[in-house]
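Field reference: sequence -> structure
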Amino acid sequence: AIREHRRLTHLFLNTDDPIYALSRIGVELEAHIRFEERVLFQRVQEVASEAQLEWIDRLHGLMKDE
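Structure field:
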């Protein structure tokens, strides 16, 4: 997931070929979101404690307010 975030950041900063970058962002972002939904979030729910999940929920709420 971290590698995907770096790749997306690189694409967002790519000004050499914005048409290519935008098309790749669309494809890679969709694949990344599907991975997080299908694998990452499920794994977090399996291993995180109730307190950790509540902490994540609070942080997520704070980020929405920004």
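Note: The chain has a mean pLDDT of 91.
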